[in-house]
Amino acid sequence: MTLDSTDLFGALFDRRVVPVLVPMPAPRPYSYAVPEGMAVEAGSIVQVPLGPRLVVGVVWDGLDDGTVDPTKLKEIEKVFDCPPLTRDMRAFLDWVASYTVTPPGLVARMALRAPTAFDPEPMVEALRLTERRPERMTSARERVLATASDGFSWTRSGLAHAAGVSSGVIDGLAAQGVFETVFMPPPPVVATPDPDFAAPRLEGPQKEAAADLLTAVEERKFSVSLIDGVTGSGKTEVYFEAVAATLRAGKQVLILLPEIALTASFLERFQDRFGAKPAEWHSDLAPRTREKVWRQVTTGQVRVVAGARSALFLPFEDLGLIIVDEEHDPAYKQEDRVFYNARDMAVVRGRIGGFPVVLVSATPSVESRVNGEVGRYRPIHLPTRFGDAALPQLGVVDMRRHPPERGGFLSPVLLNQVGKAIGRGEQALLFLNRRGYAPLTLCRVCGHRFQCPDCSSWLVEHRFRGQIQCHHCGYSERTPEACPECGTLDHLVACGPGVERIAEEVERHFPDARTIVLSSDLMGVKRLRLELEAIARGEADIVIGTQLVAKGHNFPMMTLVGIVDADLGLANGDPRAAERTFQLLSQVTGRAGRTGLKSLGLLQTYQPQHPVMQAIVSGDSDAFYDREIHERERAALPPFGRLASIIVSADARSDAEGHARALRNAAPRVDGISVLGPAEAPLALIRGRHRFRLLVHGRRNSDMQSFLKAMIAGGPKERGSISVQLDVDPQSFL
Ligand code: ADP
Ligand code: ZN
């Protein structure tokens, strides 16, 4: 066979033209020319011109077909000195893009969220002792010389600190040539965890659970385990064994947590077990730290990351295990730009990378529970609390029989128990998932209700701040003295309770107690961490909090948990309302009695017979799950069927509605898939945009993605202010 000139040109072109995925909503990578002498490979992170800008992109897979003339293309500007994205990572990003029906460039952008981390970290200036000695010796100088005589290089501040002198002393010595300047690699963001630092002695069912898990780790292939155990049963200790085994095997570990910014206690626990903290990854990291972590994850210097859902998109050098703690938590779902569920995508990443994934929860999602029952996941149970800690005794307070006093929200039964707990020197937690003072404010004279000008929602009064606020868009104004409608002074009434109002009621009843309100709008993350630590040390008697107190904190003296409104989450039309309420209430009541003290959880409810209340009080979660699973199966809801939402929004209501209708008409006819709507969304207006929803329902085996693509392709173009969002496996129906 001979090679003719076109083949030869084809081959040359192949080498000189590469597809580059740019962070744009384009359906596929763009072609770029590789300049003479530049070496790139699939996965290389590069800088390319895009219109008037330079953007960061990734050289993607797939050869050019050789038909493009490289001289007509823009050239790659630069290749960053940074490990290329691995083949597994590229396959993962492609998979997520296709599953969520999102342009791949937008998904890849999530892996590149550290703007200047792509170049190596600069070396750090350091000092090393020379042969020269100072002309005049002082005791401070002697200390410095003694400290630095270990032969190592020191940073200026490190040496000053170690020798107990001011940095002026060091500068003086350096000026006399006693030190020379050298450059060292930058220090790691975290020390290396030691798998054998402080291994616990596992007990009873923990041993068996850990052995099961280790089997999964040692197989070194893809599997999903579901650790299902009551709060305080030792789930964390058990999965730490899998972390240790993976570290020993030389692989990296990712631990996903729903709200990492708040879990200082988790980081400390990890340190107690492994002698070093994991690297953190979440949206509150300082930019410099963020860049260091990103960089050191790609080079393998960082061995363990504990992070929020976005950590799933970090380009690990050699990932070998993912733990998804609190796997049922709705915070794993991102509903912005790329709509994905980090729990589900973690499983995909494990499958592509051929390593085990461990899901952990005291109240697993119905989806995971079903996967466990049918054998897709390996179920691991931890039925009892560790040591002498007992689960709290749980009861309902029937609010019809024990109503609160006028203007109050706490029944005498609950107040009585609060008094007893603090009387014993213990702590009480009152939980209400509502920020602010009151969810609705109205004028007693004319009935005017304060509504957000840009959203279909009521303004929430925040009395501590003297504001009324929209919880959807953040709009706020000073709480007016007069009604803007009828002008009457001092006739505004607060309707319903928020945490601030409960605090007021508590202070009326227990004026001498130390009461604290914990709510995300009242303090930043740092302050919140400090408050949580103070509470754990016993520096508060009564804690009133929203759902951020539900997660992972360990309050040793907390022996009473009161749920102010257990019915709150049941009212909306969400198919997961019962499941969510069950999970949240179990989690909150699980805060009580972590240290062997007798404890109590009370649920204030107007529907004590509701299956959720019954399941929690009886402790029979199996019956609850059986019921939920049966209901889902009957209605072919996930995991027995598939759902996708299409949200159409526009500045004008008629545009949104018209576009949604047209999309519906463009839906292909496919057996087993049907489209419901369009209907005005329950949140019909957000930030001045009108919203309509379509719900696509399919059988379990239906090809939802192709259906959605066909619908969008067959529908009208998005013009003007119209925008269409696709949400595969929706969690929110608002
Ligand atoms: P979960 O994650 O299921 O809520 P944890 O792992 O947090 O449970 O365990 C609850 C408490 O019991 C923690 O303080 C933990 O350190 C302690 N604990 C659990 N198992 C052991 C063990 N085998 N040895 C010592 N302490 C343990
Ligand atoms: Zn608003």
TrEMBL record:
GO terms for cellular component: primosome complex. Gene3D superfamilies: P-loop containing nucleotide triphosphate hydrolases, PriA, 3(prime) DNA-binding domain. Binds 2 zinc ions per subunit. Zn(2+) 1 binds at residues 443, 446, 483, 486. Pfam families: DEAD, PriA_3primeBD, PriA_C, Zn_ribbon_PriA. Keywords: ATP-binding, DNA replication, DNA-binding, Helicase, Hydrolase, Isomerase, Metal-binding, Nucleotide-binding, Primosome, Zinc. GO terms for biological process: DNA recombination; DNA replication initiation; DNA replication, synthesis of primer; double-strand break repair. Its cofactor is Zn(2+). Its EC number is 5.6.2.4. It catalyses: Couples ATP hydrolysis with the unwinding of duplex DNA by translocating in the 3'-5' direction; ATP + H2O = ADP + phosphate + H(+). One of its GO terms (molecular function) is ATP binding. Zn(2+) 2 binds at residues 452, 455, 470, 473. Component of the replication restart primosome. Initiates the restart of stalled replication forks, which reloads the replicative helicase on sites other than the origin of replication. Recognizes and binds to abandoned replication forks and remodels them to uncover a helicase loading site. Promotes assembly of the primosome at these replication forks. This is Replication restart protein PriA. It comes from Sinorhizobium glycinis. The gene is priA.
